[in-house]
Design brief:
CATH topology: 2,3-Dihydroxybiphenyl 1,2-Dioxygenase, domain 1
Distance between the termini: 51 Å
CATH superfamily: 2,3-Dihydroxybiphenyl 1,2-Dioxygenase, domain 1
Number of domains: 1
CATH architecture: Roll
Strand order of the largest sheet: 2-3-1-4-7-6-5
Number of strands: 7
CATH class: Alpha Beta
Length: about 190
């Protein structure tokens, strides 16, 4: 049985560029909508909204896929550079950017069947939207605001190293449908 998300994941490795763009658009729209409904009240807090670059945040949808799917998508999209993921994290990833501000992180595990976050996600849910990422001006301050004002516990007690020298933290946020959405806040580090 096929779903629109599964079809879109498969279409990311199409030889036809319009098909890849349509697939990316569908995945991005779905991820953004799911996260948007879960964090809608965040935008009412002026400080948090500013930290997340509201009202026009930079959003990337993180898609977890099996290793073979990861390879097919990467090749079909011109073999983009792999991100520099810290060695203690069981993940490989690359970013795909499409017209219209559509940004996807394609993620896979280094150790299928392992104990890393992506391996666990794939074992439990299969391929799908694993996280939605928001660029943040200061992850430590945003984490403090989310803990104090929204009573949300971060996944990690302290901000940690992320891919390509970013600083990150994650929040498992309840969604209106009764599920949860993994939100990543990431901060670009100055080069210098």
């Amino acid at each position: 049985m096929s779903s629109p998300l599964i079809e879109s994941i498969a279409d990311l490795s199409s030889a036809e560029e319009p098909k890849r763009l349509a697939a990316a658009s569908n995945i991005y729209r779905l991820g953004r909508a799911t996260a948007g409904s879960a964090i809608s009240d965040w935008w009412a807090d002026g400080e948090l909204s500013a930290l997340l670059h509201g009202p026009n945040p930079a959003i990337t949808v993180g898609l977890a896929v099996q290793r073979d799917t990861f390879g097919h998508i990467r090749v079909a999209n011109g073999t983009p550079r792999l991100a520099g993921v810290p060695p203690d994290q069981d993940a490989e990833e690359f970013e795909l950017d499409f017209v219209g501000g559509i940004s996807l992180d394609i993620l896979t595990t280094r150790e299928p069947g392992g104990t890393g976050a992506i391996a666990k996600y794939l074992a439990r849910f299969g391929e799908g939207i694993q996280q939605v990422e928001y660029r943040c001006a200061n992850v430590e301050r945003a984490t403090q605001v989310l803990k104090e004002k929204f009573r949300l516990a971060p996944v990690y007690p302290e901000t940690r190293a992320g891919a390509d020298a970013t600083r990150v933290n994650f929040f498992l946020v309840p969604s209106p449908d009764g599920g949860k959405v993994l939100i990543e806040l990431y901060e670009l580090q100055s080069r210098g």
